[in-house]
Amino acid sequence: MVTNPHGNPAPWTIVCDDSCPVVRFLARLVKSCDSRRTFTMIGKNDTDSQATELAVELDSSPWSLLLIDDELERRHGPDAIPFILKNLPSGRIAAVAYTLPGTMWITRKFYFMISRNRKRLAQINLQSQPVSAKPGVREAA
Fold first, then answer.
1. Who's near 21: CB < 8 A, 6+ residues apart?
2. In this structure, is residue 20 part of a structural domain?
3. How many domains does one find in the chain?
4. Strand 12-16 relative to strand 65-69: parallel, antiparallel, unpaired?
5. Rounded distance, CA 48 to CA 70, Å?
6. How far is Cα 50 from Cα 38, in angstroms, rounded to an integer?
7. Any idea what the CATH number is for the domain that residue 77 is in?
8. Less CB within 10 Å around the terminal CB: N or C of the chain?
């Protein structure tokens, strides 16, 4: 079972490729909206053994996102987005958009484009901050 930083089982774990600036930005956005601490965020660059195992699993997927629930069921890429939104405060409003015809198709196309190019996007030198870092805290250079 995946545990959060406090050692407690987390209902949802998000594993993402934090070397991609787009994915890193979206992960920080989710983390900042997660006031109930529903999610444990694990970046591909985290170094503990649990994160390393999950990073290997993420690498075997064409997507840059893996969502694991408390029963260890996995959802990859755009299939995970509605579950993430439903578990964020006021995210349920955005999750309703996924009931509109064609929304998931558009999301899949856009998400696959980002995932397919994440290695190129990782080359972009933006102010990088690991997903696991606390919001507002910068790492020493």
1. 121, 122, 124, 126, 128
2. yes
3. 1
4. antiparallel
5. 20
6. 18
7. 3.40.30
8. C
Task: With CA atoms as reference, report the closest residue to 115 among 26, 51, 8.
Answer: 26
Nearest residue to 23 via CA among 78, 70, 75? 78
- Which carries the bigger pLDDT value, residue 16 or residue 132? 16
Higher pLDDT, 97 or 56: 56
Distance CA 82, CA 65 (A): 13
Taking the whole predicted model, whether its pTM rises above 0.90 is answered as no
Res 68: pLDDT: 93
Its sign, for the CA torsion 47, 76, 2, 85, is: positive
Gap between the Cα atoms of 78 and 81, Å rounded: 5
